[in-house]
Structures are given as C-alpha cells and as structure tokens.
Amino acid sequence: MAVSHVSKAADWKQSVVYQIYPRSFCDSNGDGIGDLPGITSKLDYLQALGVDVVWLSPVYRSPNDDNGYDISDYRAIMDEFGSMADFDTMLEGMHARGIRLMMDLVVNHTSDEHPWFQQARQSRDNPYHDYYIWRDMPTDGSLPNNWEAAFSGSVWEPNPATGEYYLHMFSKKQPDLNWENPKVRQEVYALMRFWLDKGVDGFRMDVINMISKPAGLPDAPVIRGGHLQPSFGMVTNGPRLLEFLREMKAQALDGYDTITVGEAPLATIQQGVDITNAQTGALNMLFQFEHMDLDAIPGDGRGKWALRPLALTDLKASMSRWQNALWQTGWNSLYLSNHDQPRPVSRWGDDGVHRVASAKMLATFLHGLQGTPYVYQGEELGMTNARFACIEDYRDIETLNMYREAVQDRHEAPAEVLARIYVKSRDNARTPMQWDATTHGGFTTGTPWMQTNPNHAEVNAAQARDDADSVWHYYRRLIALRKQLPVLVEGRYALLQPEDPNVYAYTRALGGEVLLVVCNFTPHEQAFVLPAHVAFETQELLIANYAVNAADSVRACTLRPFEARMHVLR
Ligand code: TEU
Ligand code: CA
What we know:
The chain contains 16 helices and 22 strands. By secondary structure, it is of the alpha/beta class. The strands form six sheets. An eight-stranded parallel sheet has the order 13-12-10-5-2-1-15-14, with helices on one face. A five-stranded antiparallel sheet has the order 16-17-18-22-20. A three-stranded antiparallel sheet has the order 6-9-8, with no helix packed on it. It binds 1-O-alpha-D-glucopyranosyl-D-fructose (TEU) and calcium ion. The site of calcium ion (CA) has 6 residues, from loops.
C-alpha cells in the first residue's frame, strides 16, 4: 500500500469522514442492491479522495422498513449486503488503507421484528416487556398523548395481545427502546463492545438525543388545532440523556480508541457543549440540525415540507453561533449532506449551469469552518436531486407516507405534493452512486432498487477523476489542505459582514496566520470588500473555484457566480 497513515483517535479533529449509504453505493452481484463486496471494490477510490474515516449507514439484519434503520439483529449482516466474512474483508481493506470505520448505532429503537420485541409484545409479564415503552389502551380508542410520529400518524400503535399501545417515534415497525430499564442499556453496551472487539473504530449514533423520555410523556404543545402534534421537541433533551451517554462512555467506549458522533435533531447549543465537552461530555461531536431547518417555515405543523427559501444571513447567524459557542468547549461536525437531506448543490447552489462552481463553493464554505467535515457519497461529484415523474418511483417511507396523507387524506393536488418531494425528499440523496456513464451509472448490472439519476451520463466518478477541474479533484485538494494547515483545524472563527445577504465571508485565526474564506452564494456577480480590520502583509491563494488573476486584490474584488476563494494571510 502506497500510503498508510492509520489515524488514531487523537486525530479525529483533523479527519474528514465519508458517509456510505450501502444500499446505493455499489452492487457487486447484479441484484440491484448495493452490498459490502461492492464497498470493498471501491476502497481505492476512497483512498484516492483522501478521506480518513468511513461512516457506514446500517448494515445489520433488517426487514428494511426504513432501509436498515430498523434492526432485527444487531450482530448479523443484512442478507442482501453479504456475510460477516464480507464485512471482515471490507474492514481489513479499510484499515490497510489507513481508513477507520464508524458503524451506525441505531439504539433509540429496534425493528418490531427484533426478538426482544417479538417477546415483549406477547404478554405484560414477559421478561422483555419492559424493554419497550407501553401505555394502556382505553376501550374508547383514545390515545395516550397527542404526539405525531416522524413518518406520519400517531406514535402509538395498538398491541392487541396485551391491550396496550407501544411507542414509536418513527415508523410503527420501529418501537422505541425503554432506556430507563438498566437491562436495555446493558444490551446496548454489549453489542457496542461486540463491534469494537471486531475492530471497528467507533459509532455514528442515530437520534441519540432521543433516548431519555420525559416522565409521564405529556402532550406536546398544540401548533395546529385538532391534529396530532410534532413531538421531537418532547424527547430530544430528556432528563437522563447526559447520564445515559456518560454511562455508555464508561461502559462501552472507554478503553477503546474510538471516534463518535451523535445525531441530535433539535440540539441546542447547550446540549452541543454538554455532550461534546472533552472533559465532562461523552461523545466527540454531534450532528446538530439548526442549519438544515432554516429553509422550512418555523413553527409550521408541516415540518420540513413547509418550504421557504434559505436566507443567507440566517445561515451565517446559525453557523456562527455554533462556531463561537463550541470554541474550546466542544467540537462541531460539519455537514450539508447525508442520506436524509436533499443534495446541497440542488438545495443551496445551482444544479443547472453553475452546478460545478456551486458544488465547489459549498464545499469551500463547509471545509473552511472549524469542526470535522462529512462528505456524503456523491457529494464529491456534485450529484443532484432526483425528479421522478411519479410517486411509484420513490422508495423512502417518510416520502411515501407524507404523499399518502397529503393526497388521500387531505386531497392535495399530486403535482403540488410531488413538487415538495423534488425539494426535500430523502430519496434525493439515495439514488444510486454514479460511477460511470454506462447504464445505471455503473452502479449495477441488474435493475437498481431505485432509479439512477438520468444525469449520470455527465455526472459520474469516471468523468470526474479524468477532469482536473472537477468537483471531485476540488474535494481531494480541500481534504489534503486540512492535513497541511493547522489553522484549518485549530483557527478561531470570526464572521465578516453578517448583514450581507449574498456573500458569506469569514476568517479563522491561529497565531500569526489568518485563513480567509469568501463565498458568493448567488448566481450573480457580487462585490466583496475585505474589512479594514483584517490586517496582513502577504497572502497566498490556497484554493478557488475560478482562475484568479494573481493581480486581483484580496482587499476588493468582484466575485463571479458562486465564486469561492480560500486564502491564507500572514
Ligand atoms: O434520522 C432522524 C431524523 O431526525 C431525521 O433526519 C429524519 O430522517 C427526518 O425524518 C428527516 O426528514 C435518523 C436517520 O438518519 C434516518 O435515516 C432514520 O430514518 C431515522 O433516524 C430513524 O432511525
Ligand atoms: Ca448486491
């Protein structure tokens, strides 16, 4: 192996993480479903990109109600993805290339097909009953509270055998575990140690800030009359959250060299600091959602589907609050993209004529910030949202349930509902990875489980690697810069021109060095003037998405559509 720089836990602040959504990454056997041997066949690709860590979305045995986020056996590999031997080969291949592996840990809930739940639902005195969360089912059919589940409908599902409801924050095939039960916690720590003992390097923890439920499960505030109410806010900061996470750290993580990130919808800054503080917290970093929520109307019962355009000043304010608050108190995760979010180039860039420029601009913006950057598969190619003609082409449970409720129950026009899906569906990110220009983008020789984006003929990895100006080579250079410049890792963040609605510019300062990042978020030319207080003698252009004339001034320039520049000032 040419390079072998196995990162140690101490390096996670310098690391770049690459997320693989296995179902859509690479299919090795022609059944149309991505698999572990497929991933193994692409490890050289990841090494060439220069990423340090892979976060692998769930590969455990699952009935796939929510594509593996509903686990029926935490110690087995999903049949469609391969065998445990395939897993071991993949892990060895990663380690041989200096790449560490973070598994997805989904322990807020299991599948309803998990043996624990199969037992638990049989009778109230079954030893597993208390592994889940139950409420009596009144004969009048009333519900224990007004909570709406993430994938539509009530969080309460009847279980006739015991005359009870069980709680599910997501689909009814994802019953929530009862973390108040110490046996549940011990089961979780044991399965974590099982994977750590196999040699995995850490975990991305699914909705981990939802594991502690408030006493009594009281009603959620009513924001739309006569309906179920959004309920995440009731459970994302429960009374025992930090206690559980510290216990998990002590019993399952300490003693191993791990990298950890918790997914935390609705996380507050205080929660970010509490959980990621190196001395008193429990995890290395969190995925907070504030920036992902900025293009939805706040307080609207339709949640993420209540579309509104992003105001750049909101993005600046939000990112800056997190950058400043976690400075030396915690650590940020940096992401614009994952398997739950639309493609950033379609969302906040331009997936038409400025696709390449805007994909690079968004990358510059993100990778210049303080924190650990995450790259979601295909982001490094500037992959775009999908626009399938009909709902039958979509696969995501959240999308399908939302469509059914809107069209069948509320009689909304299908075209209008589809228009929202084009903007926000999770399937936008889940179309197969585009490896080359052949049929199905080289993802499979069979029929893919979800259609490939028709633009795979132009947008694909083979093209990108051959083109020195591609989004891919730009990501490779950004990732390499992180390894060369301490100011990128350690530099203190400062926002410039908070009121400018078009250009996001900021500095990062360390010792005598200042990193300057300037990003035009619009398809128009924009004037940029560097505030006078930013003083320097020499400047070096580190990376830019247009050819920058050496005579151009850092002090004042005109930025082209979606232009981005990163300088170091000394
Ligand atoms: O997501 C949790 C979450 O809060 C959201 O991102 C969620 O997907 C939301 O509905 C998006 O609109 C995690 C996983 O990342 C997601 O794929 C799972 O479906 C979910 O947990 C349940 O395990
Ligand atoms: Ca396959």
